[in-house]
Amino acid sequence: MTAGGYKADIGPDEVWKRLLDGADGVLIDVRSRAEWTFVGAPDLSSIGKQVVFVAWQDFPAMQVDADFARSLDAVIADQGVNRDADLFFLCRSGGRSAAAAAVMTAAGYANCFNVAGGFEGVHDEMGQRGKINGWKAAGLPWRQP
Length: 145
Prior knowledge:
Elements: E1 8-10, H1 12-21, E2 26-29, H2 33-38, E3 41-42, E4 52-53, E5 57-58, E6 63-64, H3 68-78, E7 86-90, H4 95-106, E8 111-115, E9 142-143
Parallel strand pairs: 1-8, 2-4, 2-7, 7-8
Antiparallel strand pairs: 3-9, 5-6
């Protein structure tokens, strides 16, 4: 377990590999609805899976959703996901997802992972994201509505 209170930080390529290999792995995008809509989101349709979307914070106030754990628990229970499944948490760059992974570990989920670099990763020298690390930079499937 990391000092942050969850199983580990792992890169997007490793997450993709585990989602391909593991029938019970779940990718959980904790960014805001605005980010999903305007920045894009991972697309798992090519491997017959769906991303779970539950926001860690409400936009525009960006306050942590006090019901996050309960909301996510209900969503994944509806999907028949057990508490030992690999849960991969993703945000923009890895901060919110680490906090969400810790909360769900404390809620009794044994295998919570933070996706290092998140969806967009860190800023490059031009101040732009999506080019150095993260899901997009790794060239993994994503879509924009």
